[in-house]
Amino acid sequence: MKIALVTGASSGMGREFVKQISQKYPKLDEIWVIARRIDRLSELQKEVKTPLKIIGLDLTKDESLNEFESILAEYKPDVKILVNSAGYGKIGNVEELAYEDVTGMIDLNCKALTAVTYLVLPYISNRSRIIQLASSAAFMPQPGFAIYAATKSYVLSFSKALGYELKKRNITVTSVCPGPVKTEFFDIAETEHSIPFYKKVVMADPKKVVAHAIKEAAFGKEVSVYGKLMQAFKTSSKFLPQKMVCNIISKGR
Ligand SMILES: NC(=O)c1ccc[n+]([C@@H]2O[C@H](COP(=O)([O-])OP(=O)(O)OC[C@H]3O[C@@H](n4cnc5c(N)ncnc54)[C@H](OP(=O)(O)O)[C@@H]3O)[C@@H](O)[C@H]2O)c1
Fold first, then answer.
1. Are 253 and 231 in contact (CB under 8 A)?
2. For 19, 59, 83, 141, which has the most beta carbons within 10 A of its beta carbon?
3. CB 46 within 8 A of CB 22
4. Averaged over 71-93, what is the pLDDT?
5. Ligand 1 atom nearest to CA at 178
6. Which residues is 52 bridged to in the sheet?
7. How many CB atoms lie within 10 A of CB 73?
8. Tell me: the pLDDT tens digits for 130-165?
9. Rounded Cα gap, residues 201 and 215, in angstroms
């Protein structure tokens, strides 16, 4: 059974990945969709032709990861596409954040993403694709979004290295690094503090970001960055002094 597996499929880019993968890869037998809100996942079935296997899991919980491992062992799918989209961020200085968010961002964005990738690896066949949702926040430390940015640097570093390890199996790993994207992400991110005005102006359309990512993953690109502005940010992050950028970010808040 050939499948795609998408975490964070109940909203935003994960949901969009499910829709676009269903259209672009009609030969897949199923798309497995993971999130906590199973009502949202069930509704998604109305919008896609490919049968969905709905898996309600809180990926920050060890018992959920154990359950996921058992489901894989039971069905033994051939995973052609893995998309790790589950993730969240909270804006605010570290000392202002709640303890459960300080550790929760790391649990979901780093630990769960790594665990899901690791558990799926035995079921990924040659010439398959792994798509990891990182962020342009991965390119630089971000005062006021420090833990989130650090978790995404982890995703980018981990995914790049994994890509080299999997070359012999012709499996590619693409890190998707968008700037701000118009999704429910900000309903959670902005609970206590707002994003700066300039980020609101450059919000991208999730449909376009996902279409671009699927295309670049098909070509085996290591990093997918949507839009000229974010591409310029990625390039400049390689030579601009981090101290200067951190000062600018701090003053722009
Ligand atoms: N939006 C942006 O500006 C932006 C920019 C760069 C990168 N990203 C990254 O892109 C990815 C997708 O974000 P998005 O913008 O699509 O956000 P979103 O609309 O808030 O979607 C996040 C998804 O993660 C799932 N999720 C959250 N906590 C979970 C948990 N404990 N267990 C399982 N699933 C969980 C949510 O489902 P449930 O609540 O139903 O569990 C939801 O489906 C994230 O990794 C994010 O960091 C976002």
1. no
2. 83
3. no
4. 97
5. 6
6. 31
7. 11
8. 999 999 999 999 999 999 999 999 999 999 999 999
9. 25
The model scores a pTM over 0.85: yes
Atom of ligand 1 nearest to the CA of 189: 20
Of the candidate ranges 77-81, 186-190, 193-197, 202-206, the one whose mean pLDDT is the lowest: 193-197
Q: Which residues contact 202 (CB under 8 A, 6 or more apart)?
A: 179, 180, 227, 229
Q: Going by CA atoms, what residue is nearest to atom 43 of ligand 1?
A: 8
Q: How far is the CA of 85 from the centre of ligand 1 (A)?
A: 6
Q: Per residue in 115-148, is it b (16+ CB within 10 Å) or e — as a string?
A: bbbebbbebbeeebbbbbbbbbbbbbebbbbbbb
Q: What are the helix and strand counts (H, E) for the chain?
A: 11, 7
pLDDT band at 240 (very low <50, low <70, confident <90, very high): confident
Cβ of 200: how many Cβ atoms within 10 Å?
12
Which whole number is the average pLDDT over 105-125? Answer: 98
- Which residues are within 8 A (CB) of 61 and not within 5 positions of it... i.e. 6 or more apart? none
Output Rg (C-alpha) for the chain, integer angstroms.
18
Helix (H) or strand (E) segment spanning residue 89: none
Cα–Cα distance for residue pair 20/14, rounded to 1 Å: 10
Fill in the DSSP letter of residue 7: E
3-state secondary structure of 92: coil
